[in-house]
Each structure stands twice: as C-alpha cells, then as structure tokens.
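Question: what's this shape?

___
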Amino acid sequence: MNAGKFIAGGIVLIGVAAGISMYWLQEYAYYQPAQFASGQEILLTPIESGVPEPILVDTIQGIDSASVPMKFRACFTTPMTLAMLTETYVAYKGAVPLTAPSWFDCFDANAIGEALEEGKALAFLSQSQIAPQIDRVVAVFPDGRAYAWHQIAPDTANAYTGAAPAAPAAPQPPAQTPNKVE
C-alpha cells in the first residue's frame, strides 16, 4: 500500500515540476532585451519607395528572441501624427498583435487589438519579410503611444496554420443543348 502512495506522489511531483518548467520556458527562457540601433529603432515602409525608413522615436523598450522571430515586441512613443503617418506610410490590413509575456507589461495585445478594431489606433507595415514569411507591424495611437510586433504575413498564413489554400473554382461543363430529333 505504501509503495502505491510513493508512486502516486512521484507522478504528482513530476507533473508539477513539468508544469513549472513549461511555464518558465514560455514566459522567460528565450526572451532577451531587444537591441535597437540608435536612429534606426523603428522603421516604417513609405508608400512611395517601399523601402523601410526610420521614424522618430522618443522612448522605446522591447523584447526579442534569437530562437523564434515571432517573439519580438516593442513599446515606444513617437511625436509623429496619425495624419502624417497615414499620408506617408503603408497601412497594414489584418494586424493582430500577439500576446507578450506577463512581465512585459507595457504591451497589452488585447487592448491594442481592440483599439485597432475600433479605429482608435492605426497599423502600419514596418518591414515586410523581416524573417521568412514574417512581417513587422506597428500600431500607433493618436497620443503617440505605439507598439510593434511580428506576425505571419497575410499572404503566407496558410503555411503556418496548415489550412489548405483556397482551391480555384472548378470549370463548369459546357451547357448541353437538347438533342433535336428530325
């Protein structure tokens, strides 16, 4: 009877240790402070040239991971107005911010996503294909708060989700005319 209790207790302890390890790996293990080049912190893609260029950034903090390109998140402020940004830079349709670790509290993906849906913030293309099939997206609020993250490029989303690309419409057979008997 005692052996069964020890085995059950061991299984529970192993499960707890595995759960703590997985949580730590997801929340802390692979993140590091993002490195930003002075004057090149955040880039946006202009409508005219299509070549990303730096924008004005006042304060910035970010996290990144060398192992996975989707882990990049940044919070910053910019003195640039939404009117100027929309006239100059490429808007990004389908922007969906990804959640950040709980300890990176300046980045609230749910609040940013809601603001984008309600039109209280606008999304812009920072850099297309910053990694294979990954875009960097920037969302800007009217008060100058801004956020950046990586997301799967819309035209390649099926490669990651496993969804099959939409099949082309099947050709319709030619209309048959009734046979006339003479």
